[in-house]
Amino acid sequence: MSEITRMVVVLCLIAGVCSAALTSANVLLAPYVDKQTDLYVRGPALERLFGQPAEKVLGNKIVVPSEKGDVPVFFSREGKDVSILAVEAIGKGGFGGDLKIIVGIDLINQRQAGMEVVSHSETPGLGARIEEPGFRRQWQGLPLDKHLAVTADGGIIDSISGASTTSRAAVNGTNDVLDFFGENKDEILKMIAEL
To answer: What is the pTM of this model?
Structure first.
């Protein structure tokens, strides 16, 4: 066997072993990575939405399969009844890219409980103002059966001055959640009941 052939074989073996090790580590660590993502990325948004420490809310999670991928849904209960759902969505078309939001659904009052921002890449001082309570508060108490729009498009959500694209992305994500909830409400409640 020539020296070059031997080096190629050794390099291929090393690459194969490294690839197998990385794949195994990824599979073994995936649940821990998911828990850390829930706690440190979604956790602050869930705390604001539910008014409880993230650790209490994170144990109440299901993942609902959909055509667009798996959708994390968090919930809280009053007694045995599910009172609030928090459904994650991607708000497409933000100025700095897509937004990740969580929309709260109050099942007791059949209203939106609020909208919280999980992550974004918006411009500080402009689009990043979607995190401000004054903007997010507009979602509280809105109906579940009507799509939202910003005021410039005939809706009721006041856009952030200078960041209408970001505001529309938050509205788009909310509308996706409302559609998803309307189509999957029974399945979501069934999955929760089976826990």
So the answer is: 0.82
